[in-house]
Design brief:
By secondary structure, this protein is α/β, with parallel strands linked by helices. It is about 50% helix and about 10% strand.
Length: about 425
Amino acid sequence: MEKPLDKLFDKFLQGQAIFRDRNALRPTYVPDDLPYRDEQMNRIGAILGPTLRGAPPSNILCYGKTGTGKTVVARYVLDLLVKKAKESRVSPPLTAHINCRIVGTNYRVLRQLCEDIDARMPDGSEVPFTGLPTDEIRSIFKKKLDSDSNIMVVVLDEVDSLVKRDVGQGNDILYGLTRMNGELEQSRISIIGISNDLKFKEMLDPRVLSTLGEEEVIFAPYNAVELKGILQQRVAIAFNRDAIGEEGVINLVGALAAQEHGDARRALDLLRTAGELAERSGDEKVIQGHVREAQKIIERDTITETVKTLPMQSKAVLFSVYALANKGQKDIFTGECYNVYSEIAQSLSLDTLTQRRVSDLISELDMLGLINTTVISKGRYGRTKKIRLAVSRKQIGIILDEDVRLGKIAEEVL
């Protein structure tokens, strides 16, 4: 007896394959050629070049909105630098890439660095995930790095999330890494910070800022023509011949991504999802209808992922806006939001932030597109923000209810 899934799997086996290499459409893929980023590549390459002569390079801060090529350019330049060093028979730099949104504590950052250079405990065992004093794991890393004459380049991707999650701890992590050269005898460490937030530097301690921001590289958004060129390059790698059914598919993907401030990552995600939808439907070609459907799926998934990865304080602020909106309030003001936030913070055993800090978190939620804010002048009484949810109340409610801690207090607040 044929099982229900047999027909589904047979469809994949018998149908024409759409993808040749779908990994070429993922953010982690580094192509052999990077179009439209020569200026940034040359700048970063010139800063890192002294490592080929055994000299430590300056620290670098790369700025730009999401999907402007910061991460892929950093990886591309470092890969070529290491390759060139090996070809020239000089000692290549050690490299590490840390996503600060995932590895967000001082301990985890140091542990990741220990893994990247294979630093181990005195007894030869691996550094544990938790349990050691931070000073001890820092000492293990420094001892291993300084055991030979090394230059290590550490890429801190989404470095702004370190400071946004906890300003004090984020500054401590960055200060510890940028000042480590003063403690090393043979080796040197260099930082490449990658940030999506142009205001990130305002949150940094002046001591950190003076060393981390030695060199700055700005990444402007891609325009529609550049996005089309990037998509054409990746289509040739990722899809089988004639898998793109209409010439307008690439134009549509590029136009939709250009509306989102030139986000190449979004364009590639959109094209990959459209291809996967065509594949699941048993269609032989990707058409514009698949792109439109993929756009709806990505928008829904993006909001879910954004809310789930918010720090707890930001979730509490968003939940307070949601609670007031759920009670029928169309216009929500900062003071009202703060009063509800205070109740939520107390119920969650969180430290209650000042109204000014909550106002900053509201601005961050606005920047993420989860709420819309308008500054209202009240004359001699100062200014306040008028707040509205920018996404579906139902969708935000479902996501917040899935959070175990928030779910427990939902009935009290709502």
